[in-house]
Please model this.
Amino acid sequence: MRLLGQLASSPLTRSRPTKGDAVGDPQVLHDVLAGDAMLVTPEEAARLLRVGRTTVYALMKHGHLRPVHIGRSCRLPRAELERYVDGIPNAGLHILRHSAASVMLTNGVPLKVVSEILGHSSIAITGDVYGHVSPGVSR
Model:
């Protein structure tokens, strides 16, 4: 590395703090951003919204969610997630979850698959909750 035309023999950052110096090892930008509660990965956003990861990517692709691009990765600000949820008229995420499950079942998606997508611990729970959707839906 060159500093002001001279060859620098030591790095600019110290690996350990000196006596009286409270600054420790420098953090890599990726580690700082990953630990920041204000930015979440698409996977974390999917868990927060209780939807699949591919749904979050589709929302980003169609412009419903605006990610922050950091190098080759992207993060979603929590404020952006709140903006999106607030823009859903009169429908909470729980209602949307039930609607999605009902649509899947009426279109012939097997009960086991819907149960796994919803994260139910057993297929019986899905059958009990959505048994009324279609005559073919049962335990």
In short: The beta strands are 2-3, 6-7, 39-40, 68-70, 73-77. Residues 67 and 76 are 5 Å apart (CA to CA). The chain has a mean pLDDT of 74.
